[in-house]
Specification:
Elements (H helix, E strand, L loop, with lengths): L2 H21 L5 E11 L3 E2 L2 E2 L1 E4 L4 H5 L6 E10 L4 H10 L3 E4 H4 L6 H26 L4 E8 L14 E5 L2 E2 L3 H8 L7 E7 L6 E6 L1 E2 L6 E2 L2 E7 L4 E4 L10 H11 L10 E4 L2 E2 L5 E2 L4 H11 L3 E5 L3 H5 L7 E5 L2 H12 L8
Parallel strand pairs: 5-16, 16-19, 19-20
Antiparallel strand pairs: 1-5, 1-6, 2-3, 4-15, 7-8, 7-14, 8-9, 8-10, 10-11, 12-13, 17-18
Helix pairs in contact: 5-7
EC number: 3.4.21.53
Catalytic activity: Hydrolysis of proteins in presence of ATP
GO molecular function: ATP binding; ATP-dependent peptidase activity; serine-type endopeptidase activity
């Protein structure tokens, strides 16, 4: 074989090997970067992101027009990266590489993680609704949160029902409700007066079952003390955003149920978990979310107070960083901006 050809072939071996390394070999890292943003005052796939409705027209009487943006932000995740893809993403400066086990713990299956994320997301939607309605002073009621598919109350009560009386005894809060249920035993019949969204108030009789860990009768429902309104609130973003969308969901509900524009027509974006009492919690990936918001055109960004130090490292000078720790401070801050004042900032 010609010496020159042999030399060339020997020289190509490491190049080919390196090319295979870049294109075939995967790395145990996940890339985190700016994800899509969604206007909680707008639509996705023909549906309102935050849809407040009632078949009897009640919601139509209380929902007010909105404009501008209240965008929730997300972090994009890329898994199964080849060495070459990971290298390019790292060099771009837009993405962060983190060990895969931090995102997908090795002791949990993907199905387990997906199920936990779904449960957490649904709870965050409920908390966002409760926080907004509490802020707006809707009265609390003993509210059904879950109904077991094959439990004693299946087909009789529904999530969202407000329980007013048990065996002709008024139950104004969870403690009063539990006190009445504790008086029962399996096989007893419980007469429950309830209010239902989009339907007339009703009365139902439930024959109580037996719980393996309790002596009292078993209804097969979960109940919470929660603000209650006649209309339904639906969040139509599937599992996008996770619990960190809670603050922006709550702000959208408040905006739609009050007169005027909460954002004064400005492009506001933000992030933050929220609990049923309206407390705003910290989130992960805030610098990625800020970059996504800035690129979308936001001029104001709502930052959970606990994330302020990290947010300042992003140096997104195009946006005003508003520090919030509760739904009330978030609403007050937006009203302050609308009035030309200076809200709390990071």
């Amino acid at each position: 074989m010609n010496r020159r050809i042999l030399t060339l072939m020997v020289a190509l071996v490491p190049i080919v090997a390196f090319g295979l390394l870049l294109s075939v070999v995967t790395v145990p890292y996940v890339a985190l970067g700016p994800g899509p943003t969604f206007n909680t005052l707008g639509e996705v796939d023909g549906k309102q992101v935050v849809d407040i409705k009632s078949t009897d027209g009640v919601a139509g009487e209380v929902v007010h027009p909105t404009s501008g943006h209240l965008n929730m932000t997300t972090v994009a995740q890329r898994d199964g990266l080849t060495f070459g893809q990971a290298l390019l993403l790292w060099m771009s400066g837009r993405d962060q590489l983190v060990p895969r086990e931090l995102v997908y713990p090795p002791d949990k299956s993907k199905d387990d993680i997906d199920q936990a994320n779904t449960t957490e997301f649904r709870q965050s939607e409920d908390d966002a609704e409760y926080a907004a309605l509490s802020y707006l002073k809707y009265p609390k009621a003993v509210t059904v949160s879950t109904v077991e598919d094959k439990g004693p109350s299946a087909g009789k009560l529904q999530p969202g029902d407000a329980i007013d009386m048990v065996n002709n005894v008024a139950v104004a809060d969870l403690a009063a409700f539990q006190a009445e249920v504790k008086k029962t035993k399996p096989g007893d019949q419980l007469v429950i007066d309830f209010r239902r969204k989009n339907a007339p108030a009703g009365t139902t009789t439930v024959t109580l079952g037996k719980h393996p860990e309790r002596d009292q009768g078993y209804l097969g429902i979960g109940v919470v003390d929660a603000p209650w309104a006649l209309f339904d609130i639906e969040f139509n973003l599937a599992n996008i955003g996770g619990p960190s969308a809670g603050l922006m969901f709550s702000l959208a509900v408040v905006d739609k149920l009050t007169t005027g524009d909460l954002n004064d027509g400005k492009f506001v974006a933000g992030t933050g978990t929220i609990d049923a009492d309206g407390k705003v919690g910290s989130i992960g990936g805030i610098t990625h979310k800020m970059l996504a918001a800035a690129e979308a055109g936001a001029t104001v960004f709502m930052v959970p107070a606990e994330n302020c130090a990290e947010a300042l490292t992003a140096r997104e000078d195009s946006m005003q960083l508003v520090k919030v720790d509760t739904l009330t401070t978030a609403v007050d801050a937006l009203n302050t901006i609308s009035a030309g004042g200076e809200p709390p900032t990071c």
